[in-house]
From TrEMBL:
GO terms for molecular function: NAD binding; UDP-glucose 6-dehydrogenase activity. Residues 313-414 form the UDP-glucose/GDP-mannose dehydrogenase C-terminal domain. It comes from Armatimonas rosea. NAD(+) binds at D30, K35, T86, T121, E155, K263, R327. Keywords: NAD, Oxidoreductase. Pathway: Nucleotide-sugar biosynthesis; UDP-alpha-D-glucuronate biosynthesis; UDP-alpha-D-glucuronate from UDP-alpha-D-glucose: step 1/1. Belongs to the UDP-glucose/GDP-mannose dehydrogenase family. Substrate binds at F152, L153, R154, E155, K204, F249, L250, N251, A252, G253, G257, K320. One of its GO terms (biological process) is UDP-glucuronate biosynthetic process. It comes from the Bacteria. Its EC number is 1.1.1.22. This is UDP-glucose 6-dehydrogenase. It holds the Pfam family UDPG_MGDP_dh. It is an enzyme of class 1 (oxidoreductase).
Length: 432
C-alpha cells in the first residue's frame, strides 16, 4: 500500500516507520524544512528508544522517505494519515489549525479517490469537519472517505506500544473503507474495534480521561494518607489487586503532565460543556491535578523555611522517564517556584536538559545527579528515571549539604532513606 503520513512528531514518525516496516511504501511529510532535512540525514528530532534504528533501516531499504512536498506525497498515496499537532487553546478547547491546514493541503492535491485517516487526537465531530474542509477546497470532483484511527502509544515506549496495542480502533463511514484501513494492521494480529467515526473519536478522549481520573484518585488517596499516617503505595497495591480496578496508573506523585493527558482532559471537558454537560468527575480530576504540584512545592517551602538562599538539586526534568519531552513537565512548576522565591536550582536529567535550557536558560545544569547534589540544601526528585531509583544513597548524602529529599515520584523506601540519614518526604508515605 502507498501511504502518506502528514506530521513527523511522535505519532507521525512511529506510524510511518511501523507501516513501512510492515512492507508499505510510506512518505512522511512535514512543513518544517529543517526537520525533514534532519530526518533525511537519519537524525531523530525526538528521543524515543528504538526509533532511530528502525527509521534508518526502513529508509535505507527504500520504504520510508521524508519530504516537505505534500502535493506529491498525496498524489502517490491511497491512504493519507493526518498526524499533526492538536495543541490546547487558552479556554481548554483544541486548536484545530494544523488539522485544517493538512485537510486543505490534501484537498488541493487530491487527483483520485483517497482514504483520509485522522490519527491526531481530535474532538468528536472532526471527521465531519475534515470532510467539509476537503469538500469545500478540493480542486477536482474526486471522491474520498474520512476515517478515525486514534493512537494510544505512550512516549518512551512508543514503538512497543504501537506494535502491541491493546486494541486498534477504526471508526469508518462504511465496512469497505474500515476493512481497507484494518488490512494495514492485520500483520500485528491485535484486537480490532470497528465502529462509527464519532465513537472512535470519543474512545480516545474517554480512555485518556479515565486514566487521568485513576491518577487523580490515587493522588487524592495519597493526600489522605499523609494526614492519617498511612502509605499510599500499600493502599493502592491493595486497591489495584481487585481485577475490576487493576493496578495500572495508580501511582501517586506530582500529577500527570506531558503532551496528552492535560490537554485531552481539558478538551473533553470543553466538549462536554459545549453540549450542556458539566462532567463533574473530569472537572475534579483536573482540579486535583492542578493542586498536586502546588501542595508539593508548599511542603518543600515549609520544610526549608522558604527558598531564599537555598540550593535545590533537581533530579529529573522531563514529564516522565525515557523521554526528553518537557511539555507540561512538573519540573517547570518547581523551577518557577524556587526562582520566584530567590532560591537556586541545579538540575540534572539524563536527556531532557537541552529542551529545558530553551525554557529556563538561567538555571544551572549539572553533569550528573551527584554533581547536582553538591552542596545542596535539598534534593527534589520529579522524574522516575531508573538511574535515580538505583542511586547510591551514601554518595548522594555525602554530596549534599542538607539532608532533605523530596520525592515527587515515590521512588524510594522511606525507611531506607531514614537509615541513610535523609529527612525523607514522599507523596502519601508514612512519616514513621
Ligand atoms: N505524543 C504522543 O505521545 C501522542 C500519543 C497519541 C496521540 N497523540 C496525538 O497525536 C497528534 C500528534 O502528536 P505529536 O506529539 O506527534 O505532535 P507534534 O506536535 O510533536 O508534531 C506534529 C508535527 O506536524 C507538523 N505539521 C503540522 N501541520 C502540518 C501540515 N499542514 N503539513 C505537514 N506537517 C504539518 C508539525 O510541523 C510537527 O512536526 C496530536 O493530536 C496528539 O494529541 C500524541
Ligand atoms: O500511575 C501513574 C501513571 C502515570 N502518571 C503520570 O501521567 C503522565 C502521563 O504518563 P503516560 O501515560 O505514561 O505518558 P504519555 O506518553 O503521556 O501517554 C498517554 O497519553 C498518550 C497521548 O494521548 C496516549 O496515547 C497514551 O495511551 C497515554 O498513556 C506522566 O506525567 C506520568 O508521570 C502518574 O502520575 N501516575
Amino acid at each position: 500500500m502507498n501511504i502518506c503520513v502528514i506530521g513527523t512528531g511522535y505519532v507521525g514518525l512511529v506510524t510511518g516507520v511501523i507501516f513501512a516496516d510492515l512492507g508499505n511504501e510510506v512518505i512522511c511529510v512535514d512543513k518544517l524544512e529543517a526537520k525533514v532535512e534532519q530526518l533525511n540525514r537519519g537524525e531523530m528530532p525526538i528521543y524515543e528508544p528504538g526509533l532511530e534504528e528502525l527509521v534508518q533501516r526502513n529508509a535505507e531499504e527504500g520504504r520510508l522517505t521524508f519530504t516537505t512536498d505534500l502535493d506529491g506525497a498525496v498524489r502517490k498515496s491511497e491512504i493519507i494519515y493526518i498526524c499533526v499537532g492538536t495543541p490546547p487553546r487558552e479556554d481548554g478547547s483544541t486548536d484545530m489549525s494544523q488539522v485544517e491546514g493538512a485537510a486543505r493541503g490534501i484537498a488541493a492535491a487530491m487527483d483520485r479517490y483517497k482514504v483520509i485517516v485522522n490519527k491526531s487526537t481530535v474532538p468528536v465531530g472532526t471527521g465531519s469537519f475534515v470532510r467539509e474542509v476537503i469538500e469545500t477546497n478540493r480542486r477536482r470532483n474526486v471522491d474520498f472517505d474520512v476515517v478515525s484511527n486514534p493512537e494510544f502509544l505512550r512516549e518512551g515506549s512508543a514503538i512497543q506500544d504501537a506494535l502491541n496495542p491493546d486494541r486498534i480502533v477504526i471508526g469508518a463511514p462504511n465496512q469497505i473503507v474500515a476493512l481497507k484501513v484494518l488490512e494495514l494492521y492485520a500483520p500485528l494480529e491485535r484486537p480490532m474495534i470497528i465502529t462509527d467515526v464519532a465513537s472512535a473519536e470519543l474512545i480516545k478522549y474517554a480512555s485518556n480521561a479515565f486514566l487521568a481520573v485513576k491518577i487523580s484518585f490515587a493522588n487524592s488517596i495519597a493526600n489522605i494518607c499523609e494526614a492519617v499516617n498511612a502509605d499510599v503505595i500499600q493502599v493502592m497495591k491493595g486497591v489495584g489487586q481487585d481485577r475490576r480496578i487493576g493496578p495500572a496508573f495508580l501511582n501517586a506523585g506530582l500529577g500527570y503532565g506531558g503532551s496528552c493527558f492535560p490537554k485531552d482532559s481539558s478538551s473533553l471537558l470543553h466538549t462536554a460543556q459545549s453540549v450542556g454537560y458539566d462532567f463533574p468527575i473530569l472537572e475534579a480530576t483536573i482540579k486535583t491535578n492542578d493542586e498536586q504540584p502546588k501542595r508539593f512545592i508548599k511542603k518543600i517551602e515549609k520544610e526549608l523555611g522558604g527558598f531564599k538562599g537555598k540550593k535545590i538539586a533537581l533530579l529529573g526534568l522531563a514529564f516522565k522517564a525515557n523521554t526528553d519531552d518537557m511539555r507540561d513537565a512538573k519540573s517547570l512548576d518547581v523551577i518557577a517556584a524556587v526562582l520566584a522565591g530567590d532560591g537556586e536550582i541545579v538540575a540534572f536529567d539524563p536527556i531532557a536538559m537541552e529542551n529545558c535550557k530553551k525554557i529556563f536558560p538561567q538555571i544551572t545544569y549539572a553533569k550528573s545527579a551527584f554533581d547536582a547534589a553538591e552542596g545542596a540544601d535539598a534534593a527534589v526528585v520529579v522524574t522516575e528515571w531508573n538511574e535515580f531509583k538505583q542511586i547510591n544513597l551514601e554518595k548522594l548524602k555525602a554530596a549534599m549539604k542538607g539532608s532533605h529529599v523530596f520525592d515527587g515520584r515515590n521512588l524510594y523506601d522511606p525507611e531506607k532513606m531514614r537509615r541513610a540519614g535523609f529527612v525523607y518526604h514522599g507523596i502519601g508515605r508514612t512519616s514513621k
